């Protein structure tokens, strides 16, 4: 559990720049590296604080700058704005510089990982660690390749992903509408708040025996534990997102005599999307985390099983191959979600 | 015939201090008449209930007693015959300038195909042609408020209610928007109720300036403002530096001065209590 060292630079800022302009791409998503570090199930920053209604929540502030009084870019450019004076994007000469920046950023971002791999390769060979327990990375890579070749890896990965994504998807479908409902009816939110906090802070894996007791050791209990663990971040973020909708916008909608469903559709929901998505992204990391642990107990397939079984059989390189695969899946899944999140949050004021 | 009539409108709020069980009187017996197409500025010290006045007119709250008539009918709730422009712009940050103006039109049931054209027209009216596709965070404060004004005008309300719309802007932007607003008002013939705490702004914009006292809010006096120079087309600095302007400003300043002092004293007492 104490592996903060596994996340070498969790906060190094250079934006992954999917969009060419880094100032826009600078969305509020410091990806909580979902890799092997289990710590982010406990204290991820963007989960809203205890009472979703009362607390403004440390989640990326859903109140856009329109409520923040004086605009940061007040209008020296304003008197009689001339469209033609709009800063025309000068593309061509900047492209080279942009590519250069990408390369440099890419190098910087992969440097730590390359270093880790180098240490992993040399330390066992140099006899600094016991090569039996930590085989060099090249050996692990060969084991991984063999597992891929004989179809084992594919089979276990498929088993894991089906459970993980299945549970994740079910959680999204349950938690988002439920969160919208609870968030909208403030008394309900206040009433349920403490209970939800209690559940959220009960480690999902502590409940695994209960799930096994109730649902057996088959697929149902595994998918259920994933659903359970994924529901809380989504639910709580959704509740807080609805509760934190900009009151000025609500007043505007009211002054225009918008009906409640319309208000919801046109104001509350769009303004809540980024915060909801932060919850979804956290749930994505949680879904893999919890599943692997669940698969270590009473499963016949899945990456968690592969890791555990390999360890029992003293197939140490295979064990590491399984671990690396999980890391890769976690990173890839998170990256997909971050990309979607950024796409949905483009309108947000670039983090000041 | 008067477009808007306040008939001894009183609004009280329960105070948060539950022990004393007092009521806070925000507005006390407001009487005010506003003619159709008039530009009326309501000026008063902070905390005098100016915004409450506007909320009542917008139908967002109900008066404790008295009534407000709009075209002879009592105001019972919000409606699209009144458009509010907020100090904080209240733009939907996920929509472009055009989308924000269309937001107003969506509420009125303007057919989808006509919305964009109509929205463009109103963005043009506020001088934002070429900025249709910008999101609010890509616009300056003044431009955002222009978008908000365009949005309120687009669904064609009879009355435009403006709650300190220029308070968050810097001086130059504010002055240019004041001119724009007067131009728009003259072009559209809307009835405008404009709330401010700025005396110069009040004198510059209003045909009538209603001075509100504080705690409780009452109408102290309604000062009609008219400049000889305005008919001749004087605007901006010409007007602001004219002796007439100085006289009006002094008149309203004198009316407000006692009020400001009193409001400050009350605030101090409250803070000490």
TrEMBL record, chain A:
<keyword id="KW-1133">Transmembrane helix</keyword>
<feature type="region of interest" description="Disordered">
    <location>
        <begin position="1"/>
        <end position="89"/>
    </location>
</feature>
<dbReference type="GO" id="GO:0055085">
    <property type="term" value="P:transmembrane transport"/>
</dbReference>
<comment type="similarity">
    <text>Belongs to the binding-protein-dependent transport system permease family.</text>
</comment>
<feature type="transmembrane region" description="Helical">
    <location>
        <begin position="267"/>
        <end position="294"/>
    </location>
</feature>
<dbReference type="Pfam" id="PF00528">
    <property type="entry name" value="BPD_transp_1"/>
</dbReference>
<dbReference type="GO" id="GO:0005886">
    <property type="term" value="C:plasma membrane"/>
</dbReference>
<dbReference type="InterPro" id="IPR035906">
    <property type="entry name" value="MetI-like_sf"/>
</dbReference>
<feature type="transmembrane region" description="Helical">
    <location>
        <begin position="198"/>
        <end position="217"/>
    </location>
</feature>
<keyword id="KW-1003">Cell membrane</keyword>
<feature type="compositionally biased region" description="Pro residues">
    <location>
        <begin position="10"/>
        <end position="19"/>
    </location>
</feature>
<keyword id="KW-0812">Transmembrane</keyword>
<keyword id="KW-0472">Membrane</keyword>
<feature type="compositionally biased region" description="Pro residues">
    <location>
        <begin position="45"/>
        <end position="63"/>
    </location>
</feature>
<keyword id="KW-0813">Transport</keyword>
<feature type="transmembrane region" description="Helical">
    <location>
        <begin position="314"/>
        <end position="338"/>
    </location>
</feature>
<feature type="transmembrane region" description="Helical">
    <location>
        <begin position="165"/>
        <end position="186"/>
    </location>
</feature>
<dbReference type="InterPro" id="IPR000515">
    <property type="entry name" value="MetI-like"/>
</dbReference>
<feature type="compositionally biased region" description="Low complexity">
    <location>
        <begin position="64"/>
        <end position="75"/>
    </location>
</feature>
<protein>
    <submittedName>
        <fullName>Aliphatic sulfonates transport permease protein SsuC</fullName>
    </submittedName>
</protein>
From TrEMBL, chain B:
<keyword id="KW-0813">Transport</keyword>
<dbReference type="InterPro" id="IPR003439">
    <property type="entry name" value="ABC_transporter-like_ATP-bd"/>
</dbReference>
<dbReference type="GO" id="GO:0005524">
    <property type="term" value="F:ATP binding"/>
</dbReference>
<dbReference type="InterPro" id="IPR003593">
    <property type="entry name" value="AAA+_ATPase"/>
</dbReference>
<dbReference type="Pfam" id="PF00005">
    <property type="entry name" value="ABC_tran"/>
</dbReference>
<keyword id="KW-0067">ATP-binding</keyword>
<keyword id="KW-0378">Hydrolase</keyword>
<dbReference type="InterPro" id="IPR050166">
    <property type="entry name" value="ABC_transporter_ATP-bind"/>
</dbReference>
<dbReference type="InterPro" id="IPR017871">
    <property type="entry name" value="ABC_transporter-like_CS"/>
</dbReference>
<dbReference type="InterPro" id="IPR027417">
    <property type="entry name" value="P-loop_NTPase"/>
</dbReference>
<dbReference type="GO" id="GO:0016887">
    <property type="term" value="F:ATP hydrolysis activity"/>
</dbReference>
<protein>
    <submittedName>
        <fullName>Taurine import ATP-binding protein TauB</fullName>
        <ecNumber>3.6.3.36</ecNumber>
    </submittedName>
</protein>
<keyword id="KW-0547">Nucleotide-binding</keyword>
């Amino acid at each position: 559990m104490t592996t903060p060292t596994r996340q070498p630079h969790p906060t190094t800022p250079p934006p992954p720049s999917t969009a060419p302009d880094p100032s826009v791409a600078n969305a509020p998503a410091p990806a909580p590296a979902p890799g092997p570090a289990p710590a982010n199930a406990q204290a991820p920053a963007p989960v809203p604080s205890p009472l979703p209604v009362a607390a403004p929540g440390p989640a990326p502030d859903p109140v856009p700058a329109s409520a923040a009084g004086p605009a940061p870019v007040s209008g020296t450019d304003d008197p009689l704005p001339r469209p033609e004076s709009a800063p025309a994007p000068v593309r061509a000469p900047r492209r080279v510089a942009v590519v250069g920046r990408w390369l440099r950023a890419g190098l910087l971002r992969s440097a730590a990982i390359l270093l880790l791999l180098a240490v992993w390769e040399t330390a066992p060979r140099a006899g600094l660690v016991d090569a039996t327990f930590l085989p060099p990375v090249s050996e692990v890579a060969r084991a991984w390749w063999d597992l891929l070749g004989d179809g084992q890896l594919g089979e276990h990965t498929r088993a894991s992903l089906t459970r993980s994504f299945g549970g994740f998807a079910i959680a999204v479908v349950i938690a988002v509408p439920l969160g919208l409902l609870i968030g909208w009816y403030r008394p309900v939110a206040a009433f349920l708040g403490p209970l939800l906090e209690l559940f959220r802070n009960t480690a999902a894996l502590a409940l695994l025996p209960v799930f096994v007791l109730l649902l057996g050791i088959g697929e149902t209990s595994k998918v259920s534990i994933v659903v359970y663990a994924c529901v809380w971040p989504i639910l709580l973020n959704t509740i807080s997102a609805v509760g934190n909708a900009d009151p000025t916008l609500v007043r505007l909608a009211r002054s225009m005599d918008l009906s409640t469903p319309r208000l919801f559709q046109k104001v509350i929901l769009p303004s809540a999307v980024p915060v909801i998505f932060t919850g979804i992204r956290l749930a994505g990391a949680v879904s893999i985390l919890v599943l692997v642990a669940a698969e270590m107990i009473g499963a016949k397939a899945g990456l968690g099983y592969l890791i555990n079984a390999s360890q029992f059989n003293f197939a140490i390189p295979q064990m590491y191959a399984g671990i690396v695969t999980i890391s890769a899946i976690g990173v890839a899944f998170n990256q997909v979600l971050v990309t979607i999140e950024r796409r949905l949050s483009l309108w947000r004021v670039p983090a000041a | 015939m008067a477009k808007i009539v306040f008939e001894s409108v009183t609004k009280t709020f329960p105070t948060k201090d539950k022990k004393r069980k007092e009521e806070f009187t925000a507005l006390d017996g407001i009487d005010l008449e506003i003619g159709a197409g008039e530009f009326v500025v309501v000026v008063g010290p902070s905390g005098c209930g100016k915004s409450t006045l506007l909320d009542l007119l917008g139908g967002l709250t109900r008066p404790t007693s008295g009534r407000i008539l709009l075209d002879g009918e009592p105001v019972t709730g919000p409606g699209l015959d009144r458009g509010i422009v907020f100090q904080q712009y209240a733009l939907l940050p996920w929509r472009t300038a055009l989308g924000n103006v269309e937001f107003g039109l969506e509420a009125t049931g303007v057919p989808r195909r006509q919305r964009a054209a109509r929205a463009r027209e109103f963005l043009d009216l506020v001088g934002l042609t070429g900025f249709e596709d910008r999101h609010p965070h890509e616009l300056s404060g003044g431009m955002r408020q222009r978008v908000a004004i365009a949005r309120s005008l687009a669904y064609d309300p009879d009355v435009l209610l403006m709650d300190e719309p220029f308070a968050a802007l810097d001086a130059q932007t504010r002055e240019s928007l004041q001119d724009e607003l007067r131009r728009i008002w003259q072009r559209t013939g809307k009835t405008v109720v404009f709330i401010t705490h700025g005396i110069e702004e009040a004198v510059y914009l209003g045909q009538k300036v209603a001075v509100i006292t504080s705690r409780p809010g009452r109408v102290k006096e309604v000062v009609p403002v008219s400049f000889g120079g305005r008919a001749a087309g004087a605007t901006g600095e010409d007007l602001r530096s004219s002796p007439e302007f100085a006289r009006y400003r002094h008149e309203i300043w004198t009316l407000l001065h006692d009020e400001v002092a009193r409001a400050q004293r009350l605030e101090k007492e409250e803070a000490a209590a």
